Amino acid sequence: MLKRGLRIALVQLAVGMDKKKNIEAAVEQIHKAKYNGAQLVALPEFFNAPYGTKYFNEYAESVPDGESSRALRRAAIDAGVCVVGGTLPERSGDDLYNTCTVWDNCGNLIAQHRKVHLFDIDIPGKITFKESDVLSAGDHITTFEYLGVKIGLGICYDLRFFEMAQVMSKEGCSVLIYPGAFNMTTGPRHWELLGRARANDLQLWVALVSPARDTEADYVAWGHTMLIDPWGSVVNELDEKPGLLCADIDLRMVEEVRSQIPVRSQRRTDIYDTISHHDDES
Ligand SMILES: *[C@@H]1O[C@H](CO)[C@@H](O)[C@H](O)[C@H]1NC(C)=O
Fold first, then answer.
1. Band of residue 177 on the pLDDT scale cut at 50, 70, 90
2. CA 179 vs CA 62, 195, 278: distances in Å
């Protein structure tokens, strides 16, 4: 075990149409991760359901009493790890959200992030995809602490918004975790680039967690779950197949980079700054 760090596992899960099977597969991987020494296990976006606006309603469930939440809570307790539950379609009253739940090793729900930026595109004659037809957007930036490590959460498209990551960094995060499912166009172009950009600009660890690629699915995910260090280097990466990435996050590297390249203390916040409007609520 690292003195100043955390051993994490990122699960590139094969997700199919059968919710029960998806949940079982996730739980199995959580135990496998524990066996590999992980203290925190992160699942991909939509770990329990196929991705696509037409599926959100059918697969949605409440947090924390839905079957997926209950299974994650149980797995966190049984394996004795923190579970970052990728995302699931959450039903809350009449609204649906794309939601990440985080369970500590005692089964407490310690964070719940609802995707802040909904992905809406409409390119005439090409592609229309509007999450906002079905989903509501979250209004909060979410961070949590586990074993003394401050961690920030974003979901897929949230990764593109630097300011959100910067707020999490300002709140003291050393690690950002993004469950996400980029597609076969944006994946090769931007998945790694954006992850490395966030890591490099903010000098922290970034974990990107994708479902495995299923070429038969409506939505074909890029895969390439990866861990990026505060120097901006990819230290570990999966290909497109189902897999489990286990790695040590060394927090000393955060301090090392920040002391060697002191952009954090040399920012000219007298001429520019990023502020959070949620400071008063946290
Ligand atoms: C993936 O998403 C991009 C950005 O919205 C879109 O332009 C592209 O057509 C999509 N690619 C595939 C293969 O669906």
1. very high
2. 19, 11, 23
Instruction: List Cα–Cα distances, 109 to 238, 267, 273, in angstroms.
Output: 28, 36, 32
pLDDT at 1: 46
Q: What is the CATH number of the domain that holds 74?
A: 3.60.110.10
Q: Identify the residue whose tokens are 């203390």.
A: 265
Which residue in 82, 156, 173, 246 is the catalytic one? 156
Residue position matching structure tokens 């409506």: 218
Q: What would the DSSP string read from start to end of 188-228? A: IIIIHHHHHHHHHHHTSEEEEE-PPP-TTSSS------EEE
With the most atoms of ligand 1 within 8 angstroms of its CB, the residue from 53, 118, 127, 182 to mutate is 127
Distance in Å, CA 265 to ligand 1 centroid? 39
Owning domain of residue 204: 5-281
Domain count, the chain: 1
What size, in residues, is the chain?
282
For the entire predicted model, the pTM comes to 0.96
